[in-house]
Structures are given as C-alpha cells and as structure tokens.
Amino acid sequence: MTKEIKTEILINASPEKVWGVLTDFEAYPSWNPFIKSLTGDVAVGNTISVRIQPPNGSGMTFSPKVLHFEKNKKFQWKGKLLFEGLFDGEHVFELIDNGDGTTLFKQSETFNGIFVYLFNTKNTTSGFEKMNQKLKELAEKP
C-alpha cells in the first residue's frame, strides 16, 4: 500500500533565494512550523537527523538517508521506521524556476510499507502547507 502527499506554492523569489532559506537548516527552529530541526552533513548518501512536529500531532525524530541534493533544484531523502518495509517515507523538496523571477516550490512525500494503512495524512499535509507558507514569506522578504 502507498499513500502520497503533494503540495506546492508559488513564491515570488528566485530559486536561489528560496534555496537559501530552505537549506539554512540552523534557522529551522526559529521559523519552520513542521521540520523543527535538521542536522548532519547534508550530502548524497549521508544519513541526517530530522525532527518533525505535525500540527495537532506528536513529534518524532528519524534518520533518513539523503538521496538527492542539487543546489537550487531538489533535495530528497528516504526514511524508515525501524527497518525498511514497515513504514518508509521518501520526501522531496523541488524548486522549479519559472523564468520570470518566481519559483514553484513543491513538497511531497510517498509513504509505503505494511503499516501505511494506519497513517492518516491530514496532519502531515497541514504541516507541509504551513511550512510552504512560511518559506514563501521568508523568501519574499526584500
């Protein structure tokens, strides 16, 4: 079984500016309403530590592996609960340059594994949307 969350928001800023805010991981505790912390050496193949706190949900810390990290374009990781196949999540941040000074920011996650049927995506979707909005606000500041 698979469940997927897809969100997007148009940001009136260049991909470089959006990327700068998105990858300033040390600042996450001060602005990010969903990802409370992200630490570690963010490079393809490395394991990082991520703490999320969905609205109206309990927080959790996990250690995903970085699958893709392309400056100003895409950041992707894959996490798992205990071991692969129980409850896995592949998270993607994607920046699309519209060529007019704006960026389409997409945040998505695909969940699969034997426990996916127990997962309600409502709080996590809300967390993505709140994070997207705050990212937009910060990136659009002069």
From TrEMBL:
Pfam families: Polyketide_cyc2. SUPFAM superfamilies: Bet v1-like. CDD domains: SRPBCC_4. This is Polyketide cyclase. It comes from Komagataella phaffii (strain GS115 / ATCC 20864).
